[in-house]
Amino acid sequence: MAGSTRLGLCDSCRRLIGKVFTLVLTILLLNGGCMRPGVEGITVSSPDSRLEVVFTLIDGVPHYEVGYDRADIVLPSSMGFTFRREPPMKTGFTVERSVTRTFDETWTPVWGQRSEIRNHYNELAVSLREEKQPGRRMDIIFRVFDDGVGFRYEFPDQADLKDFEMMSEETQFTFAGDHTAWWTPADFDSYEHLYTEGPLHRIKAANTPITMKTEDGLYLAIHEADLTDYAGMTLSRMKGEVLGLVSSLVPWPDGSRVKGTTPFKTPWRTIQVATWPGGLVESSLILNLNGPPMIEDTSWIKPMKYIGIWWGMHIDKYTWHTGDRHGATTNNAMRYIDFAARHGIQAVLIEGWNTGWDRWGQEGAYDHVTPYPDFDLKQVVEYAHGRGVAIIGHHETGGDVPGYEKRLDEAFTLYRDLGIPAVKTGYAGAIFPRGYHHHGQWMVRHYRMVVEQAARYGLMLDVHEPIKDTGISRTYPNMMTREGARGTEYNAWESGNPPEHMTILPFTRMVAGPLDFTSGIFDITFDEYKPGNRVHATLANQLALMVVLYSPVQMAADLIENYDGHPAFAFIETVPVDWDETRVVNGEIGDYVTIARRSGAEWFVGSITDENARVLSVDLKFLAPGTTYIARIYADTPDTDFRTNPTAHEIREQEVTREDVLTMELAPGGGQAIALMPKT
Fold first, then answer.
1. I need a surface site. Which of 23, 207, 320, 370 has the fewest CB within 10 A?
2. Catalytic residue among 489, 500, 611, 665
3. Cis? peptide before 371, omega within 30° of 0
4. Distance (Å, rounded) from C-alpha 257 to C-alpha 646?
């Protein structure tokens, strides 16, 4: 028989069998590579099916991998832990069971960048047990959203793993390419660094979030969510793998990383994925991986704009400590309150009001309830209330955490009884007791305790020198904003922040959450006080930052005398701090960004550039159909330059609709701010 084989099959039959075999092999490989010896594979995809996670056991070692549109993002990467006393939990596992489920809800935040957030994911829960004694158990939970992946470990209550001291978490991130990355160095006590841009292989150790751009044009951000009773995670280069990073937890003084008792959950490890830079900004994945509010009555939690006795100390007009230039005097506070009342600014921050600043850096320096003799706290608060202005209290610790904890209830009671609704806390300097780090588990516990205590006393928080944001504002919405980045004050101290710094922040640090950056400086060079320092931006850029860098407690940071009578201050007066909708109109990390935000029927747009002048187009299709808007535009002029002519600006108005496209001409280091009001 022509075309027969030794098995007696014709060519067509043989081809059919080959196709069937290929199809079966493909299906098996796509479902976790089960054809490989020693491998068990389980797959879970995003609701839109574009993002996929595969969990495998390779010779008993847990691995995960991530792909998007069938392109690799994270190659097989191992997972596990080591302990001080117990054997490692890295190998010898078998899958006891796996469970998948779909979750879809829409929830309303107390405040935020949008008034509704969809929380939609597919979940895979894998239960592992060691094949050999002691047979300990560990669960790994994956949640796959359309915009990224979160996974965490859970240790169930079990006889053979009770109290433990974790020495390392060895979660690996093995990336599929040498992506362009933006990162700050791993620092156990500060996030206040400029960003480095470079290939992934140059990262030795970094804080998170780390943002990346692949050759295929995908954007990734690696971070964590729901950091609760655990050490902050940095990422270090894996040994022998230039494109791999591994979790490196901030240590206790004794070298351990995490002390815990089962049952125990780790924070979520997060990989956000977007097809353009703005997708990272618009993502709510970090918030969605936190639990719902623990505060039943949230009516007292209110976003607000504020001014304050703050910038004057940084530029040496005032001092925090006593003396002829003491800033926090009763008379000066009343002057700021009067200005706030005239201009509809909701609150005034007063730093340096309490005793202790004269003993900066010493243990037990600060008394958080006793004012300096030239400041009458009760009188100032009553005066502010009479003018419809709130006072934001201030607690600097100088790193003296035990001293602060001893006075915390008394200090919060004072603020509550006086009717002060918010407090800014600070942890500048090394932590007491020495050997503890700002980002270690001991301090994570402290930061959370302060948030919980503040909630009990009805206080909102703005935390400086904080633990990084990981979305806990969903659970504790009184945790309003935090620093955790190199902010405006560096312009008064050192060489300052280059213009590109602000164009990087929205896609890196702010992927984690709100930032108290303290923008709005009008006296760009402040030569009267510090001739050698300056802000590296134009005045229009400083206005635009009020929109670009989101914070629900937003500071207009300059001296009030620089605002008084200035036409551009009208934008600060009108721009909201709480939003119903947020859209990234355009952006490229480190180059430029334009963000539009809606509050009610009004839209506000902020656009900034780096050191290069740019012409950007803003399509107004986000505006409501059938509505004409009055666009009030605060712009650089043709002569503006952040180096030589930073304060030159123009204010103009025009009518626009959603059919229009605005052209923005941004000066070097410049920006543009727009208020869009429906025409009545």
1. 23
2. 489
3. no
4. 47
Q: What's the whole-model pTM score? A: 0.94
516/254 Cα distance (integer angstroms): 33
Distance from C-alpha of 365 to C-alpha of 358, rounded to nearest angstrom: 8
pLDDT range class, residue 536, cuts 50, 70, 90 = very high
Q: Are 34 and 55 in contact (CB under 8 A)?
A: no
Q: In sequence order, which residues have a C-beta less than 8 Å from that of residue 223 and are 6 or more positions away? A: 208, 209, 210, 270, 272, 286, 470, 511, 512
Closest CA to 48 of 122, 125, 141, 105: 122
Query: For position 637, what pLDDT does the model report?
Result: 98
Find where tokens 């919060």 sit: 412
What is the rounded distance in angstroms from the CA atom of residue 236 to the CA atom of residue 231?
Answer: 15
Q: What are phi and psi of 183, to 5 degrees?
A: -155, 160
| Token pair of 673 as six digits | 């701010």
Question: Helices 401-418 and 441-456 meet at what angle, rounded to 10?
Answer: 10
Distance CA 172, CA 65 (A): 10
Please tell me the distance from the alpha carbon of residue 573 to that of residue 362, in angstroms, as a whole number. Answer: 40
The answer to whether residues 259 and 151 touch, using CB atoms and an 8 Å cutoff, is no
pLDDT of the residue at 86? 96
24 compared with 669, residue with greater pLDDT: 669
CA torsion, points 308, 309, 314, 317, in degrees to nearest 10?
Answer: 130
pLDDT in tens, 644-654: 999 999 999 99
In 35-80, the DSSP E strands lie at 39-45, 51-58, 61-68, 71-78
Q: Report the alpha-carbon distance of residue 81 to residue 61 in Å, rounded.
A: 11
Lookup: tokens for 626: 């059938």
Say whether 382 is catalytic: no
* Contact yes or no for 536/490 (Cβ under 8 A): no
| All domains of the chain in start order, with CATH | 1-30 (no CATH), 43-288 (2.70.98.10)
Beta-bridged to residue 244, according to DSSP, are: 174
Length in residues, the chain: 680
Q: Give the pLDDT band of residue 494 (cuts 50, 70, 90).
A: confident
Which residue type occupies 611? E
- The sign of the torsion formed by the CA atoms of 547, 549, 550, 552 equals negative
